[in-house]
Amino acid sequence: MKVGLQIPSYTTPRGPEALGRELITVARTADAAGFDYIAVMDHFFQIPVVGPAEMEMLEGYTTLGYLAACTSRAALLTLATGVIYREPGVLAKIVTTLDVLSGGRAMLGIGAAWYEREHRALGVPYPPVSERFERLEETIQICNQMWSDNDGPYEGKHYQLAETICSPRPLQSPRPPILIGGGGEKKTLRLVAKYADACNLFPTPDLPRKLDVLRAHCDAEGRDYDEITKTCYFIFDVGEKGEKAGEVTDRLARLAGMGFQAAIGAVANVWQVTPLEVIAAEVIPAVADL
Q1: Dist CA 3 CA 19 (whole Å)
Q2: Which of 59, 65, 186, 252 could serve as a FRET partner for 217 with CA atoms 20 to 30 Å apart?
Q3: Which residues pair with 40 in a beta bridge?
Q4: Which residues contact residue 174 at a Cβ distance below 8 angstroms, ignoring those fewer than 6 apart?
Q5: Would you give the DSSP letter of residue 161?
């Protein structure tokens, strides 16, 4: 079982003036501690489940570029980019840049987008959900083409690119891994089966059924279900002094028993750094062989 840190909030005890320094400390600690992924939120406003829209929120890929310079081993990704946020060709260039400058550690985390308020507020188009899924599929196709030897045009329903040149190419071969976030059974998991290297599901009671649905989509697509890394969103709360580390380990073991290979999520009180050290000492070694 692999473990990943996601940073969903940038509201820190010492405020924006110290945020850059604190991000470096958190990222370096997680990287050295053995976290396999470091992920950031990709939103323009804070989302309701975390806090009010006015809370601090950094732009995702600028933040990942900053973290790439102070880490050396963890994979770097957003969890997850809304497909409407950036034009597909530009998104492919952004992820490629991250991959090259990080030494081959970028992942493309992407989904259909859902937070209408931030789109309307900043003038970002927010088409109906059916169109967003069409654009999601085309965006993945465009990224795959830009990361291939084909630099010719792309003609889709929503996107038309005259050329798909991407130079330099990503360092990872054949391309950066693609993670699709979300558990929609008809559309999202079908796209996972068709295109993704990884999925990310929320820890709801119906997780076993979601995996069964994904397996069925893989069968329909002629895809090997075991090729796809199954990740689950997870809240790592080891307590103030590590007293809940065993409980966290047990929960991760249950996820591994369902077939998940990774858990990625927020660490409670992460800005205190100590919880990361507890996870490094007590949780990561305990779940490494699950």
Answers
A1: 24
A2: 252
A3: 7, 78
A4: 147, 148
A5: E
d(CA 143, CA 151): 11
Global pTM value: 0.97
**pLDDT tens digit sequence for 164-181:** 999 999 999 999 999 999
How far is Cα 57 from Cα 12, in angstroms, rounded to an integer?
11
Give the rounded distance of the alpha carbon of 75 from its chain centre.
Answer: 10
Residue 161, strand partner residues: 154
Over residues 196-251, the pLDDT tens digits come to 999 999 999 999 999 999 999 999 999 999 999 999 999 999 998 899 999 999 99
Give the integer Cα–Cα distance in Å for 167 and 187.
32
List CB contacts of 263: < 8 A, sequence separation 6 or more: 1, 2, 3, 4, 231, 232, 233, 234, 236, 252, 255
- Cα–Cα separations (whole angstroms), residue 235 to 10, 11, 171, 193, 267: 16, 17, 31, 26, 6
Cis before residue 168, ω within 30 degrees of 0? yes
- For residue 81, which of 8, 181, 199, 4 has the smallest C-alpha distance? 181
Per-position DSSP letters for 227-290, written without gaps between them = GSEEEEE--B---TTSTTHHHHHHHHHHHHHHT--EEEE-BTTGGGSHHHHHIIIIIHHHHTT-
